[in-house]
Amino acid sequence: MPLERVLNLGRDQLNKQRAAFVLILAGLGAMCLQVPTLAAEESTDLAGPVGEGLPTDTELERSGAVFGDIEIDNKDVFDKEDPKDNKALFRLADKLHVKTRRSVIRHQLLFRSGEPYSRHVMEESARILRADRYFYDAIIDPVRYHDGKVDVRVTTRDVWTLDPGLNFGRSGGTNSTGVSLQELNILGTGSAVGIGHKSAVDRSESSVSFANDHAFGTWRLHRIELGAATGNARSRALAERVGFREEGVRRDSERHGDDWLDMVVYAMLATDPR
User: Which residue, 18, 20, 224, 256, has fewest beta-carbon neighbours within 10 Å?
Assistant: First the structure.
């Protein structure tokens, strides 16, 4: 069996286990809210079977064809046409799951309507989508050719992205516990949000995390800025590790108890190499 198929099977099984665990853990009654799909993101299906009567990619590229309409078809987590997935629990999971917004998918594409047609660009765009943790798979195909334009369909399938965690440990005669909850695709925006809490005999800590791998494209941001106290070596090292650049120091800009702290300013631009 090819390695890619083995990995997909493993991810598919993990989706089902996560979905079942979360639904049982949270309780069906507490999870019956569904965020409505934005009207601006309604599907516009292209007519005709995929690829019927199309010239070859080489012929299209040589003729100077350009991309036409771009349809985004994002499917649910579970395939209801598959008897293994067409079960009450998985149907409920699909109803509760907020699918990735079409705008999030569209912003990751390396081509736009009116640009020269290229099979390589489509395949690279599909690869970028498949690298996202909230997609099970992504395929981009031409579906129709007319008037020098090639209409394409971007087909994706979401994965179950709500991931709870519990842990318990014992070391040196003391116990430690922790609980976490991470959503890798909050409200279909492609952003990951996580919360966690750990406790032991001598201390406890809580954490909140946020990440978006495509913030500059999805939200069309140009600049992201953050600050860290000059003496906070861990925060400064983290900022530099993810690509932020130091720009200067704001003296006595943050109050901490009775003291004023100098803050190092870091920034990342959409034009910065990453």
Answer: 256
Cα 4 off chain centre by:
20
Contact between 106 and 70 under an 8 Å Cβ cutoff? The reply is yes
Interacting residues of 210 by C-beta distance below 8 A, sequence separation 6+: 191, 192, 193, 194
- Residue entry with tokens 């390589």: 120
Say which CATH number the domain at 261 has.
3.40.630.30
Identify whether residues 19 and 94 lie together within a single domain: yes
The answer to whether 225 and 267 have CB atoms below 8 angstroms apart is yes
Q: What is the pTM of this model?
A: 0.62
Q: What's the pLDDT at 101?
A: 92
SS3 string, 23-92, reads HHHHCCHHHCCCCCCCHHHCCCCCCCCCCCCCCCHHHHHHCCCEEEEEEEEEECCCCCCCCCCCCHHHHH
* 26 located within any domain: yes
End-of-domain residue from the set 118, 136, 158: 158
Say if residue 124 is in the same domain as residue 246: no
pLDDT in tens, 4-58: 433 344 555 555 555 544 444 444 343 333 333 333 344 434 334 455 578 999 9
- Average pLDDT, integer, range 83-106: 90
**Would you say residue 238 lies in a domain?**
yes
Domain span at 125: 3-33+48-158
Residue 126 structure tokens: 């599909």
**How many domains is the chain built from?**
2
| Chain segment 124-166, per-residue pLDDT in tens | 999 999 999 999 999 999 999 999 999 999 999 999 998 888 8
Q: What is the DSSP letter of 100?
A: P
Pair (247, 135) in one structural domain: no
Residue 102 near residue 152 (C-beta atoms within 8 A): no
